[in-house]
TrEMBL record:
This protein's UniProt keywords: Isomerase, Magnesium, Metal-binding
Sequence ranges assigned to domain Mandelate racemase/muconate lactonizing enzyme C-terminal in this UniProt record: 141-239
Organism field: Alkaliphilus hydrothermalis
Family membership noted in the UniProt record: Belongs to the mandelate racemase/muconate lactonizing enzyme family.
Name recorded for this polypeptide: Dipeptide epimerase
Length: 362
């Protein structure tokens, strides 16, 4: 199974509602889809979102990195020579993790097809069904309470609440949501780097004192401030999860050894794909640090890859793979099945895609 072509196209899917975090507001998924074609007629699919505020990756940069740097390294390679392809993908350029992730995902899709097995089984095969949370965008407290009630009605048992815009208002937001939904539903919060370290300690302690029962807080402070993250971790009881602070296995090692966070959020778009995400899983296993698997604003294509990883690895105990259910349409046939909170894998080879509609690869 030899690679003969790598093609790209644009995937645009409107969201059901605007997605709002402390970092950005988005109305649609606007991602780059990668299609790798082999001499045997097999096709592997991957996807890259241009999440410039987090990864630095833009649509143009993703396409250029793949066309001019990655593609020449991979054309003509045999899929069975997998390790060599992963080394080339890593070494051909630094950073550009979303472009690398899209290609890594498509290659893993083909790897599964080569051995006629679903990817999650090749990676460990721990389970085939997982349960995701759903994200509640940051808005005024009343609107967030209404959105939370709606999510609970749809069956979600865990809500991920976006905060980080204004520490005092964030406490009001969390009180309004808890009051609206009661205590049967788990609440995790994501500040997306929006607080200063001491501000984070202040607001999290207030939430503790109010008995809001927060499962964990995600990325309270700016990504590069590992000391600030540690200050928060050392001074609150709510567990702290590192998201934007951890892209690489090296970042994970540093954060864990500093004890700067209690949990790690693995996202394929930060690691550059499954190959490097597995290294973070191994490090986390060594230290007994549980991981969450997350996503950017991504469709079912790349999120299916994250589902396979989550289904394979027991160290991934928390799931934030709601990208596909935030989308108003699904142009992808095959892959994982998303029924609101319930995500199920089929036993089709690779990632199991049948068709990607509405993307022009010419
Ligand atoms: C979509 C997912 N639930 C999520 O919240 N991801 C964000 C970043 C998403 C983005 O801005 O595209 C996160 O965990 O920080
Ligand atoms: Mg986050």
């Amino acid at each position: 199974m030899k690679i003969v072509d790598i093609q790209m196209g644009d995937l645009i899917i409107p969201l059901k509602k605007p997605f709002k975090t402390a970092l950005r507001t988005v109305n649609a998924v606007e991602d780059v889809v990668v299609k790798i074609i082999t001499d045997t007629g097999h096709v592997g699919y991957g996807e890259a979102p241009p999440t410039a505020v987090i990864t630095g990756d833009t649509t143009g940069a993703i396409k250029w990195a793949i066309e001019k740097h990655i593609k020449p390294q991979l054309i003509g390679m045999e899929i069975e020579n997998f390790e060599e392809m992963m080394i080339r993908l890593d070494k051909t350029l630094v950073k550009n993790t979303s472009a690398k992730a899209a290609v890594d995902i498509a290659l893993h899709d083909l790897y599964g097809q080569l051995y006629n097995a679903p990817l999650y089984k090749l990676l460990g095969g721990y389970r085939k069904e997982i349960i995701t949370d759903i994200t509640i965008s940051v808005n005024d407290p009343e609107e967030m309470a209404r959105d939370s009630i709606e999510a609970v009605k749809l069956g979600y048992r865990t809500l991920k609440i976006k905060v980080g815009k204004d520490a005092k208002m964030d406490i009001k937001r969390m009180k309004a949501i808890r009051e609206a939904i009661g205590y049967d539903v788990d609440l995790r919060i994501d500040a997306n780097q929006g607080w200063k370290p001491k501000e984070a300690v202040y607001s999290l302690r207030k939430m503790e004192d109010a008995g809001l029962n927060i499962e964990f807080v995600e990325q309270p402070v700016v990504a590069h401030d590992f000391e600030g993250l540690k200050l928060v971790t050392d001074n609150v009881s709510i567990p702290v999860l590192a998201d934007e602070s951890v892209f690489s296995a090296k970042d994970a090692m540093t954060i864990i050894q500093m004890r700067a966070a209690d949990l790690i959020n693995i996202k394929l778009m930060k690691t550059g794909g499954i190959h490097n995400a597995l290294k973070i899983c191994s490090i986390a296993e060594v230290y007994g640090v549980e991981c969450m698997i997350g996503c950017m604003l991504e469709s079912k294509l790349s999120v299916t890859a994250a589902v396979h990883l989550a289904a394979a690895k027991s160290i991934i105990t928390k799931i934030d793979l709601d990208g596909p259910v935030l989308c108003a349409e699904n142009p992808i046939e095959g892959g994982a099945t998303f029924e609101e909170y319930k995500i199920t894998l089929s036993d089709s080879p690779g990632l199991g895609f049948k068709e990607v509609k509405g993307v022009d690869f010419s």
